[in-house]
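Continuing from the previous page of notes. For each protein in this section, the sequence appears first, followed by its structure tokens. Read the first protein now.
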Amino acid sequence: MPAPDLRVSQLRFSYTTDAGARLAVIDDLDISLAPNEFVSIIGPSGCGKSTLFNMIAGLQVPDSGAIMLGDDDIVGRPGSVTYMMQRDFLLPWRTVLENVTLGPELAGKSLATAHAEARKLIRRFGLEGFEDVYPTALSGGMRQRAALLRTILCDRPIILLDEPFGALDALTRASMHEWLLGIQREFQCAMILITHDPDEAVYLSDRVYVSTPRPMRIAGIVEIDLPAERHRDITLSPEFAAHKRHVLSLLHAISTPLAAAH
């Protein structure tokens, strides 16, 4: 059975401040994700991107609008997609193997089966030999690979990635980008990434959504016409530079009114 599309339509969300005022966070937002696609969302800090992810993940409920996974309405339904947050949230009292099989364990699946499946993938995720150690023994990149393996083992068609590489150094982050695209192709999952880095967005994505400051709307969409098989040298190409300029021009356009207001 093919993986379903994700469609977010006319989404709105606001909350009441301590002073009693109503603050709009997301306003009339539309995004989509097809099977096996990689989409990025880039925009100013505090614009509502993480709130959007919380709603797609079923952790918050919008004021109005639809979030559809295929024909299923997933508003307020946790577990329909998987969510890898900024921090890896590896449990320090559990070994790497015990951490990466947490999802199947919580879902009530056979622990022996989950461990066997994880052991098949440990080497592909650069964790061979570290199955029985605790997270404190891992580097930053290894912790993120463990967190992604845990996410993959949840066996959902869509993965939400909230700036997972933001705390890594530049060289580690670059190697993780190429590795992540390989993982996405291998496991045939669709991914949505929140990022503040135009290079990261262009390198990883089939499509980039540029969001406005709060309340979050889509200021523009950049279709990334680059080969599916990507390596770091593609960042030196004229095509990559043109896509990056397009993203930056949209970001500049939404930041100009803010600068003028000050």
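Done with the first. The second protein uses the same format. Note its length before scrolling.
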Amino acid sequence: MDKLILTCPVRGVLKASGKSADGLTPSEEALRVETIRHLVREGYPKENFKIEPIIKKFGSAGRNSFRADFAVLNVPASVVNVSDVDTLLSHSIVLCEVKRDNAGYDYVKHTQVKPLLDFAKLDRCVALYWDNISHRIFWQEWVEGKRIQHEGSLSLLPKFGDKVNVTYLTIGDLERSDSLIGLFERIEDILHQASIDPDKRYEIILQLILAKLFDEHSNDKNPKNPLRVQDFALLGTPVELSKQKMNELLGEAIAFYQCYLPRKVSNVFNLRSQTLVDILTLLAPIRLTAAKREVIQTFYMKFAKDLYKWDLAQYFTPITVTDFIIDVLNPQFGEHLKDPACGSADFLTAAFHKCRDKYQSYSDCVWGSDNSPNAVQIAIINMLLNGDGKTNIRHEDSLEASHQYENQYNIVVCNPPFGSKILEKRKEILARFDLGHEWVEDPQGRLAISTQILDKQETGILFVEVCVVQTKPNGRIGLVLPNGYLGNRSKKYHILREWLLRHCKLVSVCSFPRFTFKSSGADVSASVVFLQKREKVLESARADDSYQFNAEIIETVGWNVGNKRGELIYRRNPSDGSYLIGEEGGKIPDSDFDKILRDMRNSIVSFDYPWLMDNTNEPKNGWSVPIKTVFEDQTITIDPKIYSKKFLTLRDSIMKVEHFLIGDILDLIPESTTKDGKRVRKKSSQLYDYVEISDIGYGEFRSRELRGWQLPSRAKHFAESGDIYIGAVWGSVEKWCIIGDDSKHYVVTNGCHRLRIKKGQEEALIDLVAYLSTDSFATQMRAMARGSDGLAEVPIDAVLQVLVPKIIDENTRNVLRPYVNNLLAGRQSLHATVSSLITHGQLNIPMPARRPNHTVLV
């Protein structure tokens, strides 16, 4: 198993398994460190701990023994003989048993935990049980000559040296659960043992959740008031009275929450009183609204699927992403935040979690709306579980209501419903939007809105306008947008960017890795754009070219975006692979977000936006780009790739040495033409050697023989000797080849740009071929790709602007020259050489028919 570096308050740095052998639960050692850390925080001196003490010796000469995971003494362990069992027990005030999971809780309680108290000598000694779900204490007292053992929640753990004092639970006594799924699986087990059918179990669990949430929210501002959900068995409350109290609470909760719920819920617990009391023993000590967001989200996704048959995987935006965006926007006291397409309320829960500890009433400032009734229900319940006692989420069409909330919110954040097929066609809606109209060029060549209403517009584009309209002047905006919106050169996206920069100042644009949003159904490359709304709209985006903006490339987001499972990934010690542990004792997600946020705040951009600055005195050496650079492009591209530090510093370093542009030495040859510009048409009966993009590598290529009628529609380049082909889309820019002096009729896919060396520039092929084989070339090409997915195209004018460093050393050129000559002669690889020998009968190897495609098994 993978190793963790654990820091134990008693034993120091340990290396131990982060998870158990099944990979599903924390290891016992990790939980033991967690337990010790909790006791130390509660005031138990770390010098008083004894790890793995023997509590009882059995058998001949005491060869067998009964151990605890650790004991806490009433004196430092170093001043007494802890190897002597009687001495140890004479000073033990805590005896602890730790287990890695909750599955055998009842068995362990009776066979290992309670026996610890049987051996205890001090009347105030408690036994502590700790696993990945339950944290319980046990103690005993003598009543009329009889010894009685009690069990209670961790909140009853006495202060160091005190006795257990049983009191009513308050909101401050409750503990956070790191496994709500595990907790409610235990509750479901109790319901199963009580012979309650599965469908009814989920209804009861919903009732328990609503009653618990209502109780917690009712006492948020009254931390000393006794809660109504109690461990009634511990208090000695009669079971029937306990159920009566819970039914009263449930009735109030249903009256408050029913309007938020997808279906009617009974206001009476339909189960035996004793079963309900048994469940409350587990549930009462836990504060649902204090759980970590990822714990709540994981639980809610499972619970909603079980109860409502909702599969929520497509709804949720990853927590690391929403937290980063909210951290950048930095909401403050009294600032109202809105998401007009809130979905499952992930941005709203992120804002609420960030601000609720600083501003108790921040839930009053969080607003959301969505046009989907199902999404609204999901959002509301998500907000309730995350601790929002009053949800400001509305079921409404944000396009219809766009101007109803004009200039109303300090912060607007949104991941709009984008896609070329998600369209708005209602004329009355389109008429309300600048971006719902046709735009034309005025006599000065500037874009201007006309009175002509479009027939349709992408919904995502209209939502950009909604967000800006509803933001107050000088308010801030965070938008997750596909990179096609930011870089595509077509007129409607150019208009979008022009409109956006007239109404807002660009603060920062950060790209996410491809597939970041795949789980929510968006298989596109996207970026988050941070803006500040202007007080006055500009007549032209170029009217303000005096400021700078930040551009970032996010490479890691905390989970594996390269596969469908999306496993979480964590930071490791590079020397031995052990996981690094954060301040709260958990593994640290491996993401760039902290680094990116720090870079943004430490750029000179932050001087213009006080909300972006931090309180440190670090030098302002973060990355920034003059907005003038954006206006150098006719269509004002704001795709972060071409403004990133990686791309621009690479270009700058090449420009400091002798170099040339690809366009200086190569000419573009259009599709379906010869090098002399004549039109070429395929012949149906002729044999061609077709080169697909997957057949091209670093200078080499393969082909398959097809008749003209078999060629796919993308077979566009009828190759000639000396052609240079370079991958034309983001996902294949590393691919290139040269068609050598060969008699075959090659046809190459249109997924490539076709280029030829200019007359008199033949010697530059050495420089070019060497550079095409490097990541430096691929980096320039990827940065200049335009679009939102793996098929984002690198336009030919961008290819011609790629910088190529010259090879000055003549010895190096002489080393490379034979390789270039081989490429030009058609001997680009061993595979090509062998194929040529077979074709010309010089190599006697039988050749079966090639598979027509990759799906054929043999």
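What the second structure shows: The first strand starts at residue 3 and ends at 8. Residues 20-24 have pLDDT under 50 and may be disordered. We return to this in next week's lecture.
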